[in-house]
Amino acid sequence: MAIIVNMPRLSDTMEEGTVASWLKKVGDKIEEGDILAEIETDKATMEFESFNEGTLLHIGVQEGETTMVDELLAIIGDEGEDISALLNPTAAVEETTPEQTEAPVEAAATVVEPSTASIPEGVIVVTMPRLSDTMEEGTVASWLKQVGDVIEEGDILAEIETDKATMEFESFNEGTLLYIGLQEGDSAKVDDLLAIIGPAGTDVSAVAANFSTSTVVEAAPTDTPKADAPVIKETPKAAAAPVAVPNTTGRLHISPLARKMADEKGIALNQLVGSGENGRIIKRDVENFTPIAAGSAGTAKFVPTGQEDFEEIKNSQMRKTIAKRLGESKFSAPHYYLNVEFDMDNAMAFRAQYNTVPDTKISFNDIIVKACALALRLHPQVNSQWFADRMKLNNHVHVGVAVAVEDGLVVPVVRFANEQSLPQIGAAVRDFAGRARTKKLTPQEMDGSTFTVSNLGMFGIESFTSIINQPNSAILSVGAIVQKPVVKNGQIVVGNTIKLTLACDHRTVDGATGAQFLQTLKGFIENPVTMLV
Q: What is the separation of C-alpha 384 from the centre of its chain, rounded to a whole number of angstroms?
């Protein structure tokens, strides 16, 4: 019997997965425990074992493709088994119950027919256009036409404020403006009713009252409309070429968008000829502007240079999850930052002496991780975690160490770091970093941190701030060791210092608590021998 294999949840935060590679192909014999595929999760690329045996009959997600957790990944069954019912369950139902197929079709038709039939001939429903790729709703900044006005194709109906800019909205139809669905300052979702155009005197009250987005969608043309075109009930005519219109008002008429575009392109407004109503300068006039050659009435020639170029890179599962979790942390946790500068002379001497021991090598980062772990043991409030209904004060210390990888950032965890020796911490961090860059860390190795250390000192960064790795309450940002003049015993001497920034969640860590933690940390880092006592 065929078995559906769904996209597995390979980590606690995984919501979707990408097939990095298939290790089996359709027709292969599968034994229990065989590796079917490598799945890229939000944290690592992991091998996915089969818990069943049989023949691989179907692959539902190709290499490089992504699907949600619990969606169809593959089908395993007996060789030659018919799996069409599993691939198209709807068709299977229709085949077994043919007598039921007619009624639903008729019911679906009746949903659309009354609304479509209620629209008089020649009437066009104009909906809120999608004027940018991210636009979900728009606000009418101003109407340039009123009910009763005659509309020509290409006339500017209104100025629409989107999520990115205020843009002119041209009519792709002609007729009389019979109805305005949104007043100036009102907002509506994309595809909601904006206006109705049609023959003069037509009663469209019923159309406006019974409007729904399905009315327009059912009758919309099959061709995909332009980003700046309204969704309408009939195919728009080809846009007419701009025609210069004399300005009869005696003053400069220009839309805000056209003015902004002209300023950005360095075009003098007196060089532009408007093709809008009463000679109004609109967006297309700026776009179609042909500069006057140098020497003609002394006007400078406008010569655009350069070419826009870009490359689109598909977001990896890791990158999408990092973006989601950091966004949630930054905008939900009230961050504040404490900045300190520590003397590193003793730490440098301590490290140099420690590394004289055969087969021993520790880094400054290892010293800082160990110092943090010991200080956290004495300040459990900084070692805490925030949840919606409670605060968790941890008595154990698991320090996450941020590691940069190609797709972003991972945070493997040094468990019980306060109980580990400096060489043990160093060995663990080096192992984590190496396997992180090859995506071989397991989810368990990246879960459970109670505090995080992020070090950019090796890149020459002197000071920076980090976003808290929730549900933790704090993260320490570590800069580079810098040689500089310092005052010691009243004398200016050459010293070595390091800048640290502690980001705290104010819901769990008060300012004084964070400051006390840093004072304890200062004692361990500036006198590292105390960590060995």
A: 29
Characterize the bridge pairing of strands 35-40 and 16-22.
antiparallel
Residue 244 has a pLDDT of 56
Alpha helices, H only, 379-479: 422-437
Q: What mean pLDDT do residues 79-108 have?
A: 57
Domain topology for 317-532: Chloramphenicol Acetyltransferase (3.30.559)
CATH for the stretch 241-304:
4.10.320.10
Report whether pLDDT(355) > 80.
yes
pLDDT 10s digits, 404-421: 988 788 999 999 999 999
pLDDT value at residue 320: 85
Q: Are 528 and 346 in contact (CB under 8 A)?
A: yes
Q: Are 410 and 13 in contact (CB under 8 A)?
A: no
CA-based angle 174:178:183, to the nearest 5? 110
CB 52 within 8 A of CB 46: no
Euclidean distance between CA atoms 351 and 496, whole angstroms: 14
The pLDDT tens digits for 497-507 are 999 999 999 99
CB-based burial label for 56 (10 Å; 0-12, 13-18, 19+): buried
More confident call, 132 vs 514: 514
Rounded (5°) CA angle 529-532-533 = 100
Q: Which tokens hold the place of 486?
A: 């310092």
**117-219 maps to CATH 2.40.50.100:** yes
- CATH 2.40.50.100, applies to 3-94: yes
Residue linked to tokens 């890791």:
318
Domain limits of the chain? Answer: 3-94, 117-219, 241-304, 317-532
Same CATH fold, 117-219 and 3-94? yes
Contact between 287 and 254 (Cβ < 8 Å): no
Amino acid at 513: T
Tell me how far apart the alpha carbons of residues 427 and 446 are, in angstroms, rounded to a whole number.
Answer: 16
In 395-504, where does DSSP find H-type helix? 422-437
Query: DSSP letter string over 208-236?
Result: HHT--HHHHHHHS-SSPPPTTSPP-SSPP
CA distance 363 to 292: 66
| Residue linked to tokens 């069954």 | 77
The tens digit of pLDDT for each residue in 516-526 reads: 999 999 999 99
Would you say residue 145 has pLDDT above 70? yes
Answer yes or no: is pLDDT of 233 > 90. no
E strand residue ranges, 309-369: 335-343
CA 457 from centre of chain: 28
For the cut 50, the answer to whether the pLDDT of residue 107 exceeds it is no
Instruction: Report, as residue numbers or ranges, the catalytic residues.
Output: 506, 510
